[in-house]
């Protein structure tokens, strides 16, 4: 009579082989790997992005795309101008007259003070502005803006020292056909030779600073 322990061992071995075979057949031909979705992953992603700047910094040159042009020609002369600014978002708000109060100073961006750098002397509305780096900010009104160049560099945008204002220019504004979600500053050539424009747009407002070089 066979040993009962041998009988149970054989039965268990056969069952194990059968189970392995079924599992192999079920997954045969499949290269898909299933990852257990952890509900805390989404929370971790949100926490990781919580520290990201919602108003990222940007840079504009004249001539436009100057860094790419210089890559193609290392002997290219210096650019005319460069603007460094942050890009806050509209986010469903009415910007001018509400978020940015009429008659109050505005840093023209967010976070650090926006900067405008000239690589040669320029002329703005009849005033000679020497080459150099300036803080640029504005005082918006309903029908015009006052644009101010300031010598208090490397500062936070809400802490501009107006005693260091160097130049002030009054420019008209225009309504745009559609609102701009993100604040932007960009340069564009003007119709007259050796003239360019610094264009500032946000919400439904466009302001243009004429610059002669």
Note down, in words, how this protein is organized.
It is built from 3 helices and 9 strands, in the order H-H-E-H-E-E-E-E-E-E-E-E. The protein has 213 residues and is of the alpha+beta class. The protein has one domain. A hairpin with a 5-residue loop joins strand 8 and strand 9.
Uncertain runs are 4-50
Biggest sheet, open or closed, and with what strands and sense? Answer: 7 strands, antiparallel
What overall form do the CA principal axes indicate?
A: globular
| CA(first)-CA(last) distance | 110 Å
Strand order of the largest sheet: 1-2-3-6-7-8-9
Report the C-alpha radius of gyration, rounded.
31 Å
Order of helices and strands: HHEHEEEEEEEE
Give the fraction of residues assigned to helices.
10-25%
Strand content: 35-45%
Number of domains: 1
Count every helix, treating DSSP H or I runs of 4 or more residues as helices: 3
Instruction: Please tally the β strands and state the result.
Output: 9
Q: What is the mean pLDDT?
A: 83
Question: Helices and strands: which structural class?
Answer: alpha+beta
Entry keywords:
two-stranded antiparallel sheet; alpha+beta; 213 residues; single chain; seven-stranded antiparallel β-sheet; 3 helices
Would you kindly provide a brief summary of this structure?
The chain has 213 residues and is α+β, with helices and mostly antiparallel strands. Helices cover 19% and strands 38% of the residues.
